[in-house]
Design brief:
Elements: H1 3-7, E1 19-23, H2 30-44, E2 48-53, H3 56-73, E3 85-89, H4 90-93, H5 96-119, E4 127-131, H6 136-139, H7 147-159, H8 167-180, E5 182-184, E6 187-189, E7 203-208, H9 215-223, E8 238-242, E9 250-255, H10 261-268, E10 271-275, H11 279-291, E11 296-299, H12 307-319, E12 326-329, E13 344-349, H13 354-361, E14 373-378, H14 382-402, H15 422-439, H16 443-452, E15 453-456, E16 459-462, H17 464-487, H18 491-499, H19 504-534, E17 539-542, H20 544-553, H21 555-564, H22 576-583, H23 592-602, E18 606-611, E19 615-620
Parallel strand pairs: 1-7, 1-8, 2-3, 2-4, 4-7, 9-14, 10-12, 10-13, 11-12, 13-14
Antiparallel strand pairs: 5-6, 15-16, 17-19, 18-19
Helix pairs in contact: 2-3, 14-16, 14-17, 17-18, 18-19, 19-21, 21-22
């Protein structure tokens, strides 16, 4: 079901002050509803839409879509849609000058709509604020803490027109202005009025396919009568519209290791989209594929410095098609592009968190119900999640060490503080001047500060979104580590399967198929290497160094059989962990006992015998 079907004609009854949430899977018509149905209604009634997005690419796509719909509707003599909508990025409003400009633009639009409604009561010149991909405030906060600033700025803009100041209050403020000013660096801040009209003059619409961790925050900010923006006490509509989430079109495939990705792509001869979680790995993969004569493009946040990447992005945004055999991308493409390329049906996602994962999954659109998308993920180990968890724990230690001296209490936030807190803010400025030397003393504390803090009006603030995000990830990593106790090395695979709505038997089927495929691949690799060593002979003698080289060459293949295959041999494989630890030691040859155990597990006809003081006898039996 499309989101427009869930809404029907109810949008015409939304009153000023309403908060609407559109929570639906990618491809369910959320943007279409705004730019076609709602924008047409707004245009016909001389209303206006302020549309905010999280990526420049999405802004460009929205503006292109507006032009497309405008052309279609021009035949019906509807005035230009572009006269009734403006598109901005959240990042732009994080710039104070742009914030001021948008605030002024909203004020002018509000004044015009009020006058229009007064002169023509039949008109419904409503103003809408659209927050597309609103998970941005939360999901991006750990690498851009200023997402909170755009959130606060937008809340401030929304509130500006129902702050009431009568002439007596203004006179009183003017008289007390000297006492109520606060100097913070090069800025003079004035405390906002705490009184407001008992009405709201805008309708807000939050849009996302991953609303899970934003919904409570949005609702709390509107239900709490004591919140920092002094919301009016009237009860306004707060409604969520949803459509079913259906990922039955996804075939889940599992890779043991990222090292298999180049081989997989080279063999397939088809188009691929690969979302990475590490820039260095992405660049190495690009080089690897280029060496194999594969047409590949790498895209990250700096893609404007690379002409090839620019052309690839432009081609996708203009045609919804991929002009490359392989596209490797960071999260820069996780929103803002919709790829409708029938030849692109292979997707690799290497990230570990749900929101980003599901956004990346939604970049490839499948229109035919009979078509399938081949999704590939890599197994992630307990050690991987333990390392992630340890990093976040250190980040939390930083937070708890400095939280008392960095803004987090919203009553003291430099955008919203009240006059009664003047003395506390002054003390905070003094404290911050001292703690900055401490924070800047080591690379690790600088890095932690970048993940959690941002500067506004001369004061350092901790993003509440960053803290929320860190706490949620800590819980997720702890839960995932715990799952390894019951689900073994496939714990993360089960987690992703659950994100996709797969049943346990479906997930287990994917695991079995991949294990079978891996068995053939790894077994074939061992046999190929050993056959080449023996050449036409049945047996050869290996020196200790040759043994080490052979073990290191086949290490991943050996580990696969030790980790994944249940052997009928009980006595010799009872202590697999000991064998694994032994063969991982690069400075040691593989013992004949461990080698022969692996051959028995893999059902391969090779044997190794330690001939003391001579070497190792490798033979085919």
């Amino acid at each position: 079901m499309y989101i427009g079907d869930a809404i029907g004609n109810e949008y015409k009854k939304w009153e000023n002050g309403s908060t609407i949430l559109l929570n639906a899977q990618t491809g369910r018509g959320k943007t279409y509803f705004i730019l076609n149905t709602l924008l047409k209604y707004v245009t016909e009634n001389d209303g206006f839409i302020f549309y905010f997005v999280n990526r420049k690419l999405l802004k460009k796509q929205i503006e292109n879509d507006i032009l497309k719909y405008e052309t279609e509707l021009s035949q019906n003599a509807i005035c230009p849609l572009s006269n009734h909508i403006e598109v901005y990025t959240y990042q732009s409003i994080e710039n104070e000058s742009m914030y001021t400009k948008i605030k002024k633009r909203v004020s002018e639009t509000w004044t015009y709509s009020k006058a229009l409604n007064y002169s023509n009561p039949e008109k419904q010149a409503k103003i809408f604020f659209i927050y597309d991909e609103c998970h941005y405030f939360y999901c991006d906060s750990t690498f851009n803490p200023k997402t909170e600033m755009s959130y606060y700025y937008l809340r401030d803009i929304i509130q500006q027109k129902y702050r009431q100041r009568n002439s007596n209050e203004e006179k009183k403020e003017n008289e007390q202005e000297e006492q109520s000013e606060i100097y913070t660096g090069d800025k003079v801040l004035l405390p906002p009025s705490e009184e407001s009209y008992d009405t709201q003059d805008y309708i807000e619409i939050f849009i996302s396919a991953t609303m899970e961790h934003m919904k409570d925050r949005i609702q709390k900010d509107r239900q709490d009568n004591q919140n920092i923006f002094s919301f009016p006490r009237r009860s306004y509509l707060f409604k969520t519209y949803e459509s079913d989430f259906d990922y039955s079109y996804v075939n889940l495939n599992i890779l043991d290791d990222k090292k298999r990705i180049p081989e997989l792509i080279i063999k397939s001869k088809k188009k691929w989209l690969i979302f990475i979680d590490n820039k260095n790995y992405g660049k190495k993969l690009k080089d690897n594929l280029e060496n194999s004569k594969i047409d590949v493009s790498y895209i990250d946040a700096d893609y404007n410095d690379d002409e090839d990447a620019i052309q690839t992005v432009r081609h996708i945004t203009e045609t919804s098609l991929s002009n490359k055999r392989v596209i490797i991308s960071t999260a820069v493409l996780d929103n803002g592009v919709s790829i409708k390329d029938e030849r692109l049906r292979n997707l690799i996602i290497l990230v570990d968190n749900k929101e980003t994962f599901m956004q990346m999954l939604g970049r490839i659109r499948i229109n035919d119900n009979n078509e399938k998308l081949n999704l590939y993920i890599c197994k992630k180990t307990r050690k991987y999640f333990e390392k992630r968890l340890n990093t976040l724990k250190k980040l939390n230690e930083f937070y708890h060490k400095y939280e008392k001296n960095i803004l987090i209490n919203t009553d003291l936030h430099p955008l919203t503080f009240k006059e009664k807190h003047i003395h506390e803010v002054k003390k905070l400025i003094e404290k911050q001047s001292r703690l900055l030397n401490d924070i800047l003393s080591t690379p690790s504390t600088i890095n932690f500060a970048r993940k959690l803090c941002y500067s506004v009006n001369g004061l350092l603030s901790i993003s509440s979104f960053s803290i929320q995000r860190c706490n949620q990830l800590v819980k997720f990593y702890i839960d995932t580590i715990e799952r390894f106790n019951s689900q073994g090395e496939n714990a993360f695979v089960y987690t992703v399967g659950e994100w996709l709505g797969k049943k346990n038997n479906e997930i287990e089927k994917s695991i079995i198929i991949q294990d079978m495929d891996n068995t053939v691949t790894y077994k074939g690799n061992i046999e190929r290497v050993l056959s080449e060593k023996l050449s036409d002979k049945n047996k050869i003698m290996l020196s200790e160094d040759e043994n080490k080289n052979l073990k290191n060459e086949l290490l991943q293949d050996f580990l696969f059989f030790l980790n994944n295959i249940i052997s009928p041999v009980s006595e010799e494989t009872s202590d697999k962990k000991k064998i694994i630890n032994n063969i991982k030691k690069n400075d040691r040859p593989i013992s004949s006992k461990n080698f022969n155990t692996i051959m028995e597990i893999a059902n391969l006809p090779y044997k190794l015998t330690n001939k003391k003081n001579v070497g190792y006898l490798l033979e085919k039996v």
